[in-house]
Design brief:
This protein is α/β, with parallel strands linked by helices and 518 residues long. 47% of the residues lie in helices and 19% in strands. It is built from 16 helices and 20 strands. The strands form five sheets. Strands 3-2-10-9-8-1-4-5 form an eight-stranded mixed sheet, with helices on both faces. Strands 6-7-15-14 form a four-stranded mixed sheet. Helix 4 packs parallel to helix 10. The longest helix has 30 residues.
Length: 518
Amino acid sequence: MSKRPRLRFIPSLLPSNTGPLVLPAPTIVAGVWGYPGAWRPAEYVFTSKDASIARVAKSSLEPLVEFYNPEHVVIFIADTVAPREALREARSYSDVLEAVVRWLYGWLRDNTDAIRERLSRLSVEVVPNVGFYQECEWKFAEGASPLDAFRALTLRVLYEKLVDVALEAPVVRLVLDLTHGINYMPVLAREAALHAAIAASLTTGSTVELVLVNSEPYPVGWSSDKPPRLEVHVLGIERVDAGYAALRASIDLVKTVLRNGNVRVKLASAPGKLAPVLGTTLNTPARMLVERDGIPAAVVTLYGLPLAAAYLAVDSELDVDNAMELYKTAIDYFRGYTRLERQPCRVFHEVGLDYAGLRSLLYAASLVRHVKRAYAGALSDDTVCCNLETLEDRGVYIDELSEIAGRLATPYRTIVGTELHKIEETIRAVAKCRCGGGDGPRCEKPEALHFPIYCDDWPGEKCKEQIDLRNLLAHAGLEYNAIEATIDESGIALRYREGCWEIVKKLLKTTARMLAEG
C-alpha cells in the first residue's frame, strides 16, 4: 500500500496557548478619563498579593503604570475636553481630535511621572461624549447612539493592543482603571474590554486576564493641604481562555446576528443619501462574510464538528485582517461625517456606529481564525496546505480529527471521540477483508457498511440528498450519508463526498437559526 504525503499548514496559524496561566504576564494598562484639568493630587495606594505601591499623583493610573510597567498604556478621553480656542480655530472634527491629543500630552508632561516616562508606549483614543461643554453642544443624529460609538472605539483599540501583545505570549493581562470615567464610560468600557478579551483570545489562542480596578472617590470638600489617601481596589479578575471565548462568542454571534430567521449585520447607519453608500461599502459585505463563514464557524465550534472545521478552515473567505478593514472604515465614516458648526457652536455626528454589528463581525472573524488554528495545530509538522481541492484529495486522518475537536475546546469532545472510535473499528474490519484478505460476516456482506471505503484511493461517490440534520449533529458532523473513507499506511482518512460540503454548510446555518430561536 502506498503512503500519501502529509501536508504542511501555514505556520503562522499554529497555536500559541501552551499552558496554564503563569505570572508575570505582559500587561496593558488602560484608563477612561473625563476632564483631568480639574483633578487634584491624592495619595493613591495600590496593593497586590506581592507588594504595595503608594504615589502622590493626580490620577490613579500613575501607581498602576509604575507597578505593572506595561507594554502599552491606553487612555480613553472624551472629545469634549477640547479647549475653547481649539473649537474656535478648528475646521473639522479631525482638528478637534488632534487638539484634544495635544492638550492631553501637555497635561501628562506637566502632571505625571510614571506615565511621562513611558510616553513612547502611550496611545490616546479620543471618544465621543454628549452634552454642553466648552460653550459647545456635542450631539448625535437621531437614531445614532453615543453608547455604541464609545463601545465600538474602545473595543477596537483594546482588541488590537491585546493581539499585539498576545502574539508573543501565552498569557496577557489587561488592567482597566475605571476611576476617572464620566457618564457611561466606566460601565461600557468594562463591557467592551471583556468583548475585546474574548476576540483576542480566539484570534491568538492566548489567555487574557482582565483586571478591573477603581479608586476610592475623592472626598467632597477636602480642604487640607495634605492629599487624601485613596485605596485603588481590584474590583474583579476574569480569565478568558480560548475555550471559554469560543463558546461565549459562538452563542453571542448566533443570538445577536440572527433575527426572525434572517441575518442582520449593520456596521454603521446614516439618514438620507449616505445610507445606500454605507450599505454598499460596509453593511452588505459584512453581512455576507458573517453569513457565509462566521455563522458556520460558530456552529462548528459549539457542536465540535472536526471534519466540517477542516473544510471551513481552507474554504473560508473571512479573516481578521479583512474584518478589521471594514471595522476601521466604519470608524472613518463616523469621524469623517461629523459636522463642526460655529454659530452656535455644535459638534454633530451624522453617522452612527452599530456596536452589535461591529462586535459580531469581529467575533465571526476571530471564530474563523480559531477554527483555522485548530485545524493547523492538528496537522503533522511535515504538511503543506491548503485549499479545498488539496484537502479533498488528501482527506483528514482520524487522529487529526480527534486533535481538531480537542483544540476547538468543544463540550462535546466525548461524543466526537466515540464517533471516531466506531468509524475506525468499522473501517479496519472491512479493510482487513478488502485490502488484506480475511473472512467472516463483514467480508461476506460488505454492502452492510454504512459508508463507502477503499484502500489507497477514494470511492469518489456523489453526495446523497438525504443528509439528516439531527444525525449530522448527533454524529459530530460525520453523518454516514455525507462521508467516505480510505485507508493506507498513514492511517484512515475521511472526507465529505462530492457536493456534501455545500449541503453541510446550509445545514449549519439551519442549526444556527434553531439556536437563535431557542
